[in-house]
Design brief:
This protein is an alpha/beta fold. It is 37% helix and 17% strand. It contains 20 helices and 22 strands. The strands form 6 sheets. Strands 3, 4, 5, 6, 11, 12 and 13 form a 7-stranded mixed sheet that branches. Strand 1 and strand 2 (21-22) form a beta hairpin. The longest helix is centred in the C-terminal third of the chain and has 25 residues, at 431-455. 55% of the residues are buried.
Length: 586
């Protein structure tokens, strides 16, 4: 890939000269740290055109069975990561993306990053992860807890219960429940399950901020992660008195391990250090943007920064974000934060814990060999083949309704002890029937979220989709039909990385704010998918059944899913089949 011509005219709202480099010849790098890999893009400052990209797969991926360093087994619902995997993204993906762009590194004026959230880790005062200390290599709590670490659900329940009992005003800003994925639940789990690691922890920090520390050598905290994942509201974290009510001895958590000045999104965190410059191949001293969260940063890439414009970032999970000029309490929302997406507006977040993960699980575990063979024969992936079969059906033909809770429910129930349900199966049910029902279930889950916002007085006026699942045209049409609204599509292969690059341009001084940078550099195709009235009417019937099941299993009509989860977690893990231990297991 080669760079663009040097005689391009910069838009009127872009600084014509940044650090001595004409805007038409300047570029920024955006790096998106996802669940399984890190992606870097090189973007032209003048118009947001992507000119180079690279992906680096994490060698350790998601650590959810045992610690790679020692073989220490992990209990159910744990999900960890390895910080060195993240550093390797900087060493490999960033220089590879610059090479792919065919530009000189000297033309790069800034770098921005985003991360999954809440992915949080304990460190020493200098930012060293505790898991990298020899004495803690075998201690699971010393490692970063990935966003989908759900083993802190009992602690999240207590965080919520104590807040409700005390009438904490911030609880309503999170839809009345605090998630097990967030900072306080995970910190309380650490405090109660490994006090030695907790006591050694000098900073409890989001990976989004830790990676910026690695780049610029300065400890910063971004307002997005603090607000949505750290319960930072109205200029403060939860009080010392509240923390003491959670657990004696926990009252100093905020003051000693969390509290730090917050930085605005698009702000300048610092300058690239000599060490980071050597690792990335970028010029020392270029702008490093304040960290951000993957879904929220994508709003700038999708030009979804105006009030009422909801963005759904669809991948392994889905995060729904939207800005508004009004503050409201939306049941089950993940949070509402002032300046949480763009300055001057309230940023709302909701989400679904499992989407692409559910589809991947089914193709991995639930499809017979004949389907694999036919997909290979036709040169299709299994997802493509099942989608083709599912798309040939009429709405309701399979006779199924599923609940998309295989990774719990993030919104609007905020309960990760819930699990998946499929109703209506018979001996005639085929894999494509189940696959379609699962696709539809995730669309129904999104409709629950959209309806909750609308009912609460924060109407969704425009809807844009982004993320890897956008490539599935059938799935997108299902969403348009279920939601009964047209869908815009992000016109960029790496939305979060583009969003990070846009924030890097602001941090470097190329644009006055994120709104202006988004208007110039964002990429979106409008009304790509439109609802079909006949299919939408049929989906209304299925959605009504989904809603009944949603409330029955999720709102206390029947507690069987939670009871089954407790039984599973209380049962010792069996030995591998065929072993001596398994023969003696009752």
């Amino acid at each position: 890939m080669t760079g663009p011509p040097s005689d391009r005219t910069a838009p009127s709202n872009v600084n014509a000269n940044i650090g001595g480099i004409p805007a038409s010849d300047s570029y920024v790098v955006g790096v998106d740290f996802g669940t399984l890999s890190g992606r870097a893009v090189v973007v032209r400052v003048a118009d947001g055109t992507e000119v180079g990209s690279a992906v680096y797969e994490y060698p350790h991926g998601v650590v959810d069975e045992k610690l790679p360093a020692t073989g220490e087994p992990l209990p159910p619902d744990w999900a960890l990561q390895i910080p060195e995997d993240w550093r390797q993204v900087l060493r490999h993906a960033v220089p590879a993306a610059v090479r792919d762009a065919g530009i000189s590194p000297e033309q790069v004026i800034g770098i921005g990053t985003d991360f999954t959230a809440c992915t949080v880790l304990p460190t020493l005062a200098d930012g060293t992860p505790l898991c990298e200390l020899e004495e803690f290599r075998g201690r699971p709590h010393a490692y970063p807890k990935l966003w989908k670490h759900h083993a802190a659900q009992p602690h999240a329940d207590r965080v919520t219960e104590v807040a409700a009992q005390r009438g904490e005003p911030w609880l309503a800003r999170y839809g009345g429940r605090i998630s097990s994925e967030w900072q306080f639940a995970k910190a309380l789990q650490l405090f109660e399950e490994d006090r030695e690691v907790y006591d050694r922890t000098e900073w409890w920090i989001e990976a989004a901020d830790w990676i910026v520390w690695e780049l610029c050598g300065r400890h910063t905290r971004n307002v997005c992660a603090a607000g949505y994942k750290g319960i930072y509201q109205d200029d403060s974290y939860p009080s010392r008195e509240y923390l003491a009510a959670l657990a004696p001895g926990f009252e100093d958590f905020v003051a000693t391990k969390l509290e730090h000045p917050l930085s605005p999104l698009g702000g300048l965190a610092g300058r690239l250090t000599a060490r980071a410059a050597a690792a990335t191949g970028l010029p020392e001293g270029i702008a490093v943007a304040v960290g951000n969260v993957d879904a929220h940063v994508t709003a700038a890439a999708a030009q979804a920064t105006a009030p009422g414009h909801m963005l759904a970032v669809m991948g392994t999970s889905t995060c729904h974000v939207m800005s508004s000029d009004r503050l409201a309490e939306v049941p089950g929302m993940c949070g509402v934060v002032r300046d949480g997406i763009v300055a001057g507006l309230w940023g709302y977040e909701a989400g679904q814990s499992g989407v692409g993960d559910i589809f991947a699980w089914f193709t991995r575990e639930g499809v017979p060999p004949a389907y694999h063979d036919e997909a290979r024969r036709r040169g299709l992936s299994l997802h493509e083949y099942l989608t083709e079969l599912a798309a040939a059906q009429r709405v309701g033909e399979h006779g199924l309704v599923a609940l998309d809770w295989h990774s719990g429910n993030r919104s609007v129930l905020v309960d990760h002890t819930l699990s998946g349900v499929i109703v209506g199966q018979t001996l005639a049910t085929r894999p494509e029937d189940i696959y379609r029902a699962l696709l539809e279930a995730t669309a129904f889950g999104t409709r629950i979220i959209v309806d909750a916002f609308t009912t609460a007085g924060v109407p969704v006026e425009e809807f844009t989709v982004a993320g890897g699942l956008v490539r599935n045209a059938f799935l997108m049409q299902v969403y348009a039909d279920v939601l009964r609204r047209p869908l815009n599509v992000l016109d960029a292969a790496q939305g979060p990385a583009l969003g990070s690059a846009i924030h890097a341009a602001v941090a470097a001084g190329a644009y006055p704010d994120v709104h202006a940078a988004s208007a110039a550099m964002g990429k979106v195709q409008r009304h790509v998918y439109r609802p079909d009235p006949e299919r939408a009417a049929r989906y209304d019937l299925l959605f009504a059944e989904y809603q009944r099941l949603h409330d029955y299993f999720g709102r206390g009509g029947n507690d069987v899913l939670r009871r089954l989860r407790r039984l599973r977690n209380e049962t010792p893990v069996s030995a591998p089949a065929g072993s001596a231990a398994s023969a003696a297991t009752p």
